[in-house]
């Protein structure tokens, strides 16, 4: 008689034309998950590759080298958000407690996953957690995409413990010790509670890519769950595999999605702070308008310095935001506040304006982050 042992954790790698990364990094992921070299699960962790209609032979390579790895083939590229939503929907019938969203350009060591699962197993109030993210090219330095966990300043600008703008710290143990509550954790390597992911409707597909994990982490907190970084777990991220840092399209996604994220969550957050629903909506609108003014200043700077494609990216981002936005409604904010006020707590909100401070203060601002306990 065959005894069924449920696979508890699904590591899902969303691939789009990154055959080289799968060949380089997938063997280490399989080994760390206790899988056989061909991908056969060896315990309570399964590694799955979902493909966004790649044209570089990625799936053929996986099928040939790792034939036991489950493959989910999508009919087109739905972006990070749509790709993961569809891939994880395929897994709804399986007995997974946790999903790990893992980029194809992540190198993992043995033992990286166990601290994350142990934390989630013993803290049912945690909706998502992540390891420290270090740079693959400079293994002692934090990586831009997530570092030691993300925070959000008073104007809604995201930054990280270990990275603000393009300034990145070396990892000297300054964020080690206790597991830390953060505002957001990187989508490059994010363990999320499967039930919570499904209950919140997954990732917001309007985003396509970039900042979608910040939006998800914000929504998890709005629904009474914590987001944490577990410093005893470390992975290395190559970064920039899909969109280079200088891409105008990436810039457009970041400007647009930052505004969509604020529209999604800011009014409800102000309501948790004690504002009336009407005041919360007005305050959110004022913050978003100020952000759009600051975006306009950035666009003007791009224009004056001859970076016309970046100027166009900001203009298009604002146009798309206006088309895609779902305005905060006081009645819905009231219904939310009545249910969650006193139950949900938003951690990781930095009370000041971190970006101007980082531009003006050299590297001294990192000391403030070291001691920040939000």
What is the element layout, followed by pairings?
Layout: E1 9-15, H1 19-32, E2 45-51, H2 58-65, E3 70-73, H3 79-89, E4 98-102, E5 106-107, H4 113-122, E6 126-135, E7 150-152, E8 158-160, E9 163-164, E10 167-168, E11 180-181, E12 189-193, H5 194-199, H6 212-222, E13 226-237, H7 248-272, H8 277-304, H9 308-324, H10 330-340, H11 354-360, H12 365-370
Parallel strand pairs: 1-2, 1-4, 2-3, 6-13
Antiparallel strand pairs: 4-12, 5-13, 6-12, 7-8, 9-10, 11-13
Helix pairs in contact: 1-2, 6-7, 7-8, 7-9, 7-10, 8-9, 8-10
Structural class of the secondary elements? Answer: alpha/beta
Helix fraction bin: 40-55%
Q: Are there runs of 5+ residues with pLDDT below 50, and where?
A: 1-6
> In CATH terms, what is the architecture of the largest domain?
Alpha-Beta Complex
Chain-averaged pLDDT:
93
Structure description:
By secondary structure, this protein is α/β, with parallel strands linked by helices. It has two domains: 9-237, Spore Coat Polysaccharide Biosynthesis Protein SpsA, Chain A (Alpha-Beta Complex); 248-343. It has helices at residues 19-32, 58-65, 79-89, 113-122, 194-199, 212-222, 248-272, 277-304, 308-324, 330-340, 354-360, 365-370, and strands spanning 9-15, 45-51, 70-73, 98-102, 106-107, 126-135, 150-152, 158-160, 163-164, 167-168, 180-181, 189-193, 226-237. Strand 7 and strand 8 form a beta hairpin. The longest helix has 28 residues, at 277-304.
């Amino acid at each position: 008689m065959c005894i069924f042992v449920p696979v508890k954790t699904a590591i899902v790698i969303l691939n789009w034309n990154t055959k080289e990364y799968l060949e380089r990094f997938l063997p280490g992921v399989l080994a760390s998950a206790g899988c056989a070299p061909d991908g056969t699960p060896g315990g309570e962790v399964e590694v799955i590759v979902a493909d966004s209609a790649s044209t570089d032979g990625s799936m053929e390579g996986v099928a040939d080298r790792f034939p036991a790895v489950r493959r989910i083939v999508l009919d087109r590229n739905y972006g990070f958000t749509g790709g993961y939503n569809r891939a994880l929907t395929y897994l709804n019938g399986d007995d997974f407690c946790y999903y790990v969203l893992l980029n194809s350009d992540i190198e993992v060591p043995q033992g990286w996953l166990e601290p994350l699962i142990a934390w989630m197993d013993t803290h049912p109030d945690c909706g998502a957690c992540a390891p420290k993210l270090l740079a693959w090219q400079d293994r002692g330095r934090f990586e831009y995409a997530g570092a030691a966990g993300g925070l959000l300043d008073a104007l809604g600008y995201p930054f990280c413990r270990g990275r603000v703008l393009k300034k990145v710290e070396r990892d000297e143990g300054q964020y080690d010790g206790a597991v830390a509550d953060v505002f957001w954790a990187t989508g490059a390597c994010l363990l999320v509670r499967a039930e919570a992911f499904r209950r919140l409707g997954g990732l917001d597909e309007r985003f396509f890519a970039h900042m979608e994990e910040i939006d998800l982490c914000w929504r998890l907190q709005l629904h009474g769950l914590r987001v944490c970084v577990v410093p005893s777990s470390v992975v290395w991220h190559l970064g920039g595999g899909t969109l280079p840092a200088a891409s105008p399209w990436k810039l457009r996604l970041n400007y647009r999605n930052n505004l969509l994220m604020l529209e999604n969550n800011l009014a409800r957050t102000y309501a948790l702070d004690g504002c009336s629903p009407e005041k919360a909506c007005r305050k959110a609108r004022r913050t978003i308008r100020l952000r759009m003014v600051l975006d306009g200043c950035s666009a003007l700077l791009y224009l004056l310095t001859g970076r016309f494609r970046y100027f166009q990216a900001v203009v298009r981002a604002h146009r798309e935001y206006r088309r895609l936005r779902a305005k905060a409604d006081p009645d819905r904010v009231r219904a939310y506040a009545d249910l969650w006020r006193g139950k949900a707590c938003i951690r990781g909100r930095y009370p000041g304006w971190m970006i101007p401070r980082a531009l003006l203060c050299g590297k001294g601002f990192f000391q403030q982050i070291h001691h920040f306990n939000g």
